[in-house]
Amino acid sequence: MKIPMNLPMWLAALAPIGSLLVLLLGFRWKAVKAGTVSLAVAVWVAVAAYRADLPLLLVQGAKGVWDAMIILLIISTAVLLYQVGEEADAFSAIREGMGKVFPNELLLILSMSWIFESFLQGITGFGVPVAVGAPLLAGIGVQPLWAVVLPLIGQSWGSTFGTLAASWDALAMCAGLSAGSVEYYQTALWAAGFIWIWNFMEGLMICWFYGRKKAVKKGLPAVLLLSAIQGGGEVLLSQINPTLCCFLPACASLLAAFLLGKTRAYREPWRVADSAIMEQKNEMPEAKEGRETMTLGQAFFPYILLSGLTLAVLLVKPLHTFLSGFSLSLSFPEVRTGYGYVKEAVEEYSPLKIGVHASVFLLTASLTGLFYYRKENRLQKGGAKKIGKRTLKMVLPSGGAVLMLVLMSKIMEGSGQTQVLSSGIVNAFGRGYLAVSPFVGFLGTFMTGSNMSSNILFTSFQLTTAELLKARSAVILGAQTAGGAIGCALSPNNIVLGTTTANIPGQEG
């Protein structure tokens, strides 16, 4: 027996996502409240329409709790890193110091929300660029809401080949693409080409948000150069070494941004006085009472350490292999719905590789930064206790939101709702599906917050569809992961990461 593919079943599968969007955008509910209602809708649809039983709900729920815990590890350690810098008054120094390095405020915004985020995405991923970038942008004068929006956009292009191509490897594995084969490189080329278009759009969008036409005109030369380095470099390296085809261009663009700041076009002070995204303050923030403003190097110390530590672990293969050996995972039995839709048994579900997980890098940078700032007399008495209390205060509200959203995703996936949504799109568009195939990748990332998860969920589905439509699989798979990259900018899970570290919980809508 198969799940009926008809309009009522498709609309039922759409109901959880639809309710989430209506409550977040229409009623401006907080993510935890909207997520709870949407989870209830997903469970009701799973039981009433998709014939899910209690064992399936329990197994998928346990998977959701495990995945949510892994996400919360990143959130809590990223918030801790932010609070260490806040208590040491590092963000005042970052705002003043970066203003000197980039007197052109538009180039400063592009560098902090697009270029630096791309660098972080290249080495860490897993939401870290948003969690780390949001408070840094707020520190240079970006309004908190926009401090979340900009890194969500800026980091998303790197989600396929970032983190040393983790998401790409998942797609290649699920598609059965042998490394070095013609189909392997053709798929990588299409994926990188589609992503380059999105990368260029990111730069233009950030300029537009900052200062509309005036900023686009001023920033266009920089966007063209930086996108050529990032997107063009990724296309070139996708045919040489996909593992490094995001990381190396991201590093090169970071250097290029600093060199641009020395050119005639961008070395003079320039800003849009009435920018909609900036705090309208002409004066720099004063250092906290009793403390002199630290140097830019001191302010960025934890972030420099974070980058260096991550690079060392990921690029030194013997070290990475050794640390990857320490992992925790859960096993789950096979479950199926009354329609016969099966979720196979898993021996090692979503293993948490402790030694190479992003939260370990963040925690190490946070604690080292804490000791460093204490040694430099940058922390006042009782500062560590204040950091701990503020961290808990910021993390606890977002924990419930992440849990509800991940549980909803797992219930929909396990009951077949996600599959029906995608299949319905194919049936509705026929051959025209080729034009909307990225939406399937987008849907997967929107729900899970991970391009890797989206590729694992839908690669086989996209391959089957390509065969039925007699289309080139390389194009379809490239569109799948490019759509997943765009989905990273709008995933509720990633949005919660940003609103938490920017200290604006409740503004997810």
Structure overview:
The chain has 509 residues and is mainly alpha-helical. Helices cover 71% and strands 4% of the residues. It contains 21 helices and four strands. It has helices spanning 7-26, 31-48, 54-87, 90-101, 105-123, 128-139, 144-156, 162-175, 182-238, 247-260, 296-299, 301-315, 317-324, 358-375, 383-415, 417-429, 433-436, 438-448, 451-468, 473-488, 492-501; strands at 327-332, 335-336, 342-343, 346-353. The strands form two sheets. It has a two-stranded antiparallel ribbon. A two-stranded antiparallel sheet has the order 2-3. The longest helix is centred in the middle third of the chain and has 57 residues, at 182-238. It starts with 6 loop residues before the first helix and ends in an 8-residue tail after the last helix.
Give the SSE string: HHHHHHHHHHHHHEEEEHHHHHHHH
Q: Stretches where pLDDT falls below 50 for ≥5 residues?
A: none
Fraction of residues in H or I helices? over 70%
- Strand content range: under 5%
Q: Let me know the largest β-sheet.
A: 2 strands, antiparallel
Fold topology:
Layout: H1 7-26, H2 31-48, H3 54-87, H4 90-101, H5 105-123, H6 128-139, H7 144-156, H8 162-175, H9 182-238, H10 247-260, H11 296-299, H12 301-315, H13 317-324, E1 327-332, E2 335-336, E3 342-343, E4 346-353, H14 358-375, H15 383-415, H16 417-429, H17 433-436, H18 438-448, H19 451-468, H20 473-488, H21 492-501
Antiparallel strand pairs: 1-4, 2-3
